[in-house]
Amino acid sequence: MKHFGHQIEVARDRRRGVAATELAVCLPIIVLIVIGTIEASTMVFLKQSLTVAAFQGARQAISNNNTAADVRTAAEQILTQRRVAGGNVVIQPADISTVLPGQYINVTVTAPARGNNVVPLSFYRGRTLSATATMMKEL
User: Fold this and answer.
1) How far is CA 2 from each of CA 8, 9, 124, 130, rounded to the nearest angstrom?
2) Packing angle of the helix pair 2-62, 68-81 (nearest 10 deg)
3) Sign of the Cα pseudo-torsion (123, 126, 127, 128, in order)
């Protein structure tokens, strides 16, 4: 009887060792997947924020009596609300007062991935995301 109890104890110790080994192999992979998912979600949010800012800037640009400063302010306001760091707004043509009705205005908003990530490990380091909205000047 004593011998049988010893075998159960050895088997239990062996199962603990297997579980510890599985954890040591799987945990880094799971952590990497979770961090990658968080980082990818952050970049999707950044890209969407840039798109919304470009759209709002373009809407300002096509309205009558607006200046490039109004367009830039509208786009930067969205970036500020969404806490986007390092955003840059480019308007084509630069002087929107010369654009005639029926012509197009482009608003491009860019931001670096580096200053906008949540986790310290960045899969997107060195990349700059951008979004462009093109709209026709109204009558």
Assistant:
1) 10, 11, 60, 72
2) 160
3) positive
- Over residues 55-76, the pLDDT tens digits come to 999 999 998 888 999 999 999 9
Q: Do the Cβ atoms of 85 and 100 come closer than 8 Å?
A: no
Is the preceding omega at residue 101 within 30 degrees of 0, hence cis?
no
pTM of the model: 0.81
Phi, psi dihedrals of residue 138, rounded to the nearest 5°: -80, 165
Classify residue 101 as exposed, middle or buried by CB count within 10 Å of its CB (0-12, 13-18, 19+): exposed
Question: For strand 128-136 and strand 104-112, is the pairing parallel, antiparallel, or unpaired?
Answer: antiparallel
Q: Where are the beta strands (DSSP E) in 49-100?
A: 88-92
CA nearest neighbour of 121 among 24, 27, 34, 47: 34
